[in-house]
Amino acid sequence: MAKLLTLVTLAGLAAPVLAQSQSSAAQATHRRLHFTPPAEWATRPTTSMMRVAQFALPKADGDPEDAELVVYYFGGTGGTVQANIDRWLGQMAQPDGLPTRQVATITERRVNALSMTLVDASGTLVAEVSPGSTERFNKPGFRLRAVVVETPNGPYFVRVVGPAATVARWSARIDEFLGSIRFGS
């Protein structure tokens, strides 16, 4: 039996619940956003109400830790596409001091009638340890892939971060996950 991730609404807030299903593919839904995570990814409890879903992507041989994929929803807000791109690029530093924007890849695409803006950057992870914290990570050899998904209910955000080899290992599956995102009833 495959794990089925469903989200139940409690007082207007989404909370993940694991259930067993006869389905061969796990699927998840948040309000009207649907996506299918690969079976190899471990579903993790969300650590805040803004996190719709959270997954651990098992580490590649030789990497110190798993990568993490989080789907965020801020109630239809969350800043402009450009503001999010700028924030994500600021979470990665380059060893040679170049601005991350000069080495990052930023693309746009449509998936299931949804506009997506994708950011892909490698370097040293220097993001805040927690929102608003003055403490920052210092993790060289990391890669960040992040996406703004524009929906009729406002933007959703997908952020993958982890050791570069681990993110590369799961790159095709991340693309499949993004390709599974759809909006509707």
Write structural notes for this entry:
The protein has a single domain, classed as Protein Transport Mog1p, Chain A (3-Layer(aba) Sandwich). The two termini are 25 Å apart. The strands form three sheets. Strands 5, 6, 7, 8, 9, 10, 11 and 12 form an eight-stranded antiparallel β-sheet that branches. A three-stranded antiparallel β-sheet has the order 3-4-13. Strands 1-2 form a two-stranded antiparallel sheet. By secondary structure, it is mainly beta. β5 and β6 (51-57) form a beta hairpin. It contains three helices and 13 strands. Residues 1-25 have low confidence and may be disordered. The chain is globular. It has helices spanning 81-90, 164-169, 171-180, and strands at residues 2-10, 13-21, 28-30, 33-35, 42-44, 51-57, 67-73, 92-93, 105-111, 114-125, 139-151, 154-163, 182-183.
Key features?
single chain, 185 residues, mainly beta, Protein Transport Mog1p, Chain A, eight-stranded antiparallel sheet, three-stranded antiparallel sheet, 3 helices, globular, disordered N terminus
- Contiguous helical run count: 3
Class by SSE composition: mainly beta
Radius of gyration: 16 Å
Helix content: 10-25%
Net shape: globular
Domain tally: 1
Unreliable spans are 1-25
Q: How far is it from the N-terminal to the C-terminal residue, by CA?
A: 25 Å
- Strand proportion, as a percent range, falls in over 45%
Following the backbone from N to C, one meets helices and strands in this order, namely EEEEEEEHEEEEEHHE
